[in-house]
Structures are given as structure tokens and as C-alpha cells.
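Next comes the chain:
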Amino acid sequence: MTNLDRLIAPRSIALIGSGAWTDAVAAGSRAIGFDGPVWRVHPTRKSTADTPYYPSVADLPAVPDAAFLAVPNRDAPDVAAGLAARGAGGFVCFSAGFSETGTADGSRLTLALESAAGSLPYFGPNCYGFVNFLDRVALWPDQVVGPVITRGVALICQSGTIALTLMFNDRSLPVAYLFTVGNQTRIAVEDLIERLSDDPRVTAFGLYL
């Protein structure tokens, strides 16, 4: 597995595709205090005074460490190829309709995504993303709730709904990382455990599989 550091603790982020979902990711990034550049990519969305939009990954002003893909599944392989060509650190594939469908078309798209991504690590497809409360990063298309902490538990879930519910706990559970893995096509649960076992800030693992 390629090094995951740039993906799970990025210093720059590209949000690619659907306005509503990527708007939510941008809001979550602000809420958690992410202070790096957040670039927006959409082929037709118009730039505003506050938010410029770039038509493609190739047009970005610099290479993103991490990206969030909320594009039609048929477009995901081309976007992944663009990120690989730029030398990005990895991505979250929020887009669904891959091998989880159990169809020939879903399997074909999965193979296309794997090939296009090259050696890039990625979460998903069919994945809600992650929140890193230690390094103030959220690639998460929903509310981000919880304090920034210095050490705590890494929660790894297949289900985005369960992960979101766990984030809203009001017990004395210090959540350091919250990951969803979706189809686990590239990054699997064991890859995260191996990487995070070396992080002295992680005190325990919680798994929902």
C-alpha cells in the first residue's frame, strides 16, 4: 500500500463534482478548522467572488494532497486518472454504483477505477469519507461534530450512517479519527490499522464491519 499520510492528513484539498455534497465537505472543513487551500472543481459551475471553480483537475493551481470525488460513477475513472497524472496524494470516492451493485457494469467500473488510479490510495468507492480530529481535516459530506483533540480512538466503519451516528455520541469517547471504507477496493480496514498502529496519538480502535 502506498503511503497514506498525504491522504489522511492533507495540507491541500480538492473537492470535485456535485455542488451540494462538495459544499457540505467545504463547510465541514471550515468547521473543524482546516487551514490549507480548498480548491473546487466543476466543469460548469460558475466562480464567485469568494469561491473560484476550476473546470478540471488539470487546471488546479497546484497538486492537491487529497481529493473528494462526488461525480457520476462513469466519470470517476477519468477524474482518478487526472489526480494520478498530477501526483496527488489520494482521494475519497464518494460516488456509488460500483461493485456493491453486484452487476457486470458495476464490476467494469470498479476495474476501470482501479486501473485509472494507478498507485494512488483511495477510500471507497461508495464511501462517506473521513474526519481527522487530530490534524483538523474533514473529507466528509455531512455535519462534523466533535472537539479537536490530541489523542483518542480511531473508529473504522464500513457504513457511513453508523459512522455519523458514532460521531454524535455524547459520552466520554475521545474520537481521534473517524473513517469509512465503503467497498474497500484499494484501502481496506487492515491497511488503516497497520498505518494507525504507528500513530502514538491513537489509543484504541473501534470497528464496525
About this structure: The domain at 5-208 is CATH 3.40.50.720 (Rossmann fold). The CA atoms of residues 23 and 141 lie 8 Å apart.
